[in-house]
Design goal:
alpha+beta
Length: 95
């Protein structure tokens, strides 16, 4: 059995996936690195709302960012994120 702190951290990570907006953001980031303005347009949301969700995703090490001039571009933190989502999809699509 993992330590209590590890169990808590795992539960907190899975809470992040409990929001469909964050899942939608991750699906956009599967395709390409994008800025907040492009995410907002793709998801038909305000930049403020997208920024809020990106902050949560970044705090949980699911996305990373890089600055280019005045723009900040976001991408998936690593392939683990893609694997977690793919495993979840496989699970819900089972008969």
């Amino acid at each position: 059995m993992p330590q209590e702190e590890e169990l808590y951290n795992l539960a907190e990570l899975f809470k992040v996936f409990g929001d469909s907006t964050r899942i939608r953001i991750l699906f956009v980031l599967f395709e390409a690195e994008v800025c907040v303005c492009d995410l907002a347009q793709a998801l038909n949301m305000t930049q403020s709302a997208i920024s809020h969700q990106l902050r949560i995703l970044k705090q949980n090490k699911l996305v990373k960012n890089r600055r280019e001039g005045k723009s900040i571009f976001y991408s998936l933190a690593d392939d683990h994120v893609r694997t977690i989502i793919a495993q979840g999809l496989d699970h819900i699509e089972e008969d």
